[in-house]
Structure formats: structure tokens, C-alpha cells
Design a protein that fits this description.
Layout (H helix, E strand, L loop, with lengths): L1 E6 L2 E6 L10 H13 L6 E6 L3 E3 L4 H5 L7 H11 L3 E6 L2 E3 L3 H5 L3 E4 L4 E3 L2 H4 L7 H9 L1 H8 L5 E2 H7 L4 E2 L5 H14 L2 H12 L1
Parallel strand pairs: 2-3, 3-5, 4-6, 5-7, 6-8, 7-10
Antiparallel strand pairs: 1-2, 8-9
Length: 204
């Protein structure tokens, strides 16, 4: 359900449960949380994507009812992605919903297909967002638009997501991974400590 592929120093993590809209189980999250640090010493760039036409519908409903919605594994995963010293790219093959936002917000860049939609209905469902998500969302879209998503339950289309700053580019589906590789090219050609230093400077 999580596919990890390596092409030299380029690593790709793919959510592969398209029959369930890539809804995330605890095992999938745990597998990702283990796989991401494994890339730390070898990857110069990481692409995070999904199979099918939806990036992720968020938590699997049965798993959410069993407690996954408030499990710390979400924050562990987004923290592991954010802590990677290499360039990280979320290649969003479709809609991003609920808890799947965390891993997407933790990436350095986000590109999406035109059909992608973005919503994080924590207010409606009675949950708090993952602890680091609001600050990352505010950094991208500003406090008012963050409240629009988190408190008003707005469903944001790809064009508005681009305007807001939630995504960096809109790319047709047949070009999504190719464009991700183009964006990763300079990082793949750089020394790892050089890329890590620039990434730190962008955060400071």
C-alpha cells in the first residue's frame, strides 16, 4: 500500500490504495514514517505522490473510528518529512483531504493536477488538526485563508489553491511526475550539504 522506489538519489513514495481513494490506515502511516528517515542518508530529492485519481481521502473511516484520527503517527510522519535535509515535492495526482494535508504541508514544494481539490474538515468532524499543520498552512496561505480551510470547511479548487499559495504549480496529470523530476534536477546535481544549507536558510 506504500510503494518506495529509488532512481539514484531520487526517491519516490507512492500511496497505492486507489480502490479506497488512498485512504490512510495506521499501517500505511507507520510504513511511511519508517520509510522517510531511511531516505535521509541517500536521497537528494523525494517525491510524494499517489496512485489513481485521488492523492488521499485522509484517514480510512474504520481506522478513524478506532482512534486513528487522533493518533500521534500523523505528526510523526509530517515531522519526519519536514526534517528531511533534501528537497521534498508533493506531486498531487488528485484531491487532498483531511489528515493527508499534514504530509503535503510538510513538503517543500507542492504541484497538483487541475482536478485536485483541497479540504480539511476538522471543525465539522470535531477533531483538532495535527499540531504542526495550522502554522504550516498559515505560512503558505496566511491566517485568514487558513481559517477558511480549517474553520469554515472550505473546499478549495486547484486554481484557487495556486492563487492562495497552497500549491506552487498546476500540471496536467500526464506531466506530473516528469515535472516533479524537472524541479528536482538541481537538487539532484548538488552536494547534499549544499542543498541542506539552502533549505535551512529558507526556514530561518
Amino acid at each position: 500500500m506504500i510503494e518506495v522506489t529509488q532512481d539514484g538519489a531520487l526517491w519516490t513514495f507512492r500511496l497505492n490504495r486507489p480502490d479506497k481513494a488512498n485512504a490512510l490506515t495506521r499501517q500505511m502511516l507507520a510504513d511511511l514514517a519508517l520509510a522517510v528517515p531511511a531516505a535521509r542518508e541517500q536521497a537528494k530529492a523525494v517525491i510524494l505522490t499517489g496512485a489513481g485519481t485521488v492523492f488521499s481521502a485522509g484517514a480510512d473511516l474504520d481506522a478513524a473510528r478506532a482512534g486513528l484520527a487522533t493518533d500521534p503517527v500523523w505528526e510523526e510522519l509530517s515531522g519526519a518529512i519536514a526534517d528531511l535535509p533534501c528537497l521534498t515535492i508533493a506531486a498531487l495526482n488528485g484531491t487532498v483531504a483531511g489528515g493527508a494535508f499534514g504530509m503535503v504541508l510538510a513538503c517543500d514544494l507542492r504541484i497538483a493536477v487541475p482536478e485536485a481539490r483541497f479540504f480539511y474538515p476538522v471543525m465539522k468532524l470535531g477533531f483538532l488538526p495535527q499540531p504542526s499543520d495550522p502554522a504550516r498552512l498559515v505560512a503558505l496561505v496566511g491566517p485568514s485563508r487558513a481559517r477558511l480551510i480549517l474553520m469554515a470547511g472550505a473546499r478549495i479548487g486547484a486554481s484557487d489553491a495556486l492563487t492562495f499559495g497552497l500549491v506552487d504549480e498546476i500540471v496536467e496529470g500526464d506531466r506530473l511526475l516528469a515535472r516533479s523530476r524537472e524541479l528536482a534536477a538541481d537538487a539532484l546535481g548538488a552536494a547534499p550539504d549544499h542543498a541542506a544549507a539552502i533549505k535551512r536558510m529558507c526556514r530561518d
